[in-house]
Amino acid sequence: MKTRISIALILFVATALLGVGCKKNKDATPTGTLLNYTNLKSTTFDRIDIIVDGKVAGTITMPYTTKPVCGDASSPIAAAIKLSVGNHKVYALQYKDGKEVAEWPETTEVIKEDKCTLANWVE
Fold first, then answer.
1. What is the pLDDT of residues 87-120, one digit of tens each?
2. CA distances from 61 to 11, 37, 76, 96 (A)
3. CA-to-CA separations, 81 to 7, 16, 32, in angstroms, rounded
4. Which of 105 and 8 is assigned the larger pLDDT?
5. How far is Cα 114 from Cα 56, in angstroms, rounded to an integer?
6. Number of separate domains in the chain
7. Residue 2: is its pLDDT beyond 80?
8. pLDDT greater than 70 at residue 33
9. Cys-Cys with 70: which of 32, 48, 116, 120 at CB 3.0–4.6 Å?
10. Where are the beta strands (DSSP E) in the chain?
11. Under 8 Å between Cβ of 112 and 87
């Protein structure tokens, strides 16, 4: 009889702990993605730095050959930047041979929860 009680107690505790571990974290900050890419000719840049809220948040080093799709991971052709929901100031700097050759004007991107916003940096 003692064995049955112990096994039942262990199963009860294990089930309770699993339930606690599976709950959604209510304190998690909601996020979305800003997916950056360019179709500039590769001869016109070595890299494009994506500046979000005053900090370099991603880099593109190659033009896209096929348009990136939301959900794609960061790669040389696309910078997928996870951001908190809300408004973010974004601009980009273009470099060639280690020198800044162009700057795109700052814009405000609105990031929505679990959504993807595409940003194509073009001339």
1. 999 999 999 999 999 999 999 999 999 999 999 9
2. 54, 9, 5, 10
3. 48, 37, 8
4. 105
5. 22
6. 1
7. no
8. yes
9. 116
10. 31-37, 47-52, 55-60, 79-84, 86-96, 99-103, 107-111, 116-120
11. no
Contact 95, 45 (CB under 8 A): yes
Is 54 a domain residue?
yes
Tell me the C-alpha distance between 64 and 38, whole Å: 6
Q: Which domain holds residue 45?
A: 31-120
Q: Establish if 19 belongs to a structural domain.
A: no
In a domain, 11, yes or no: no
What tokens were used for 78?
Answer: 């696309």
Task: Name the residue among 37, 42, 104, 44 with its Cα closest to residue 75.
Answer: 37
What the block records as the tokens of 52 is 């979000």
**Is 82 among the domain residues?**
yes
- Residues 104, 81: Cα–Cα separation, whole Å: 18
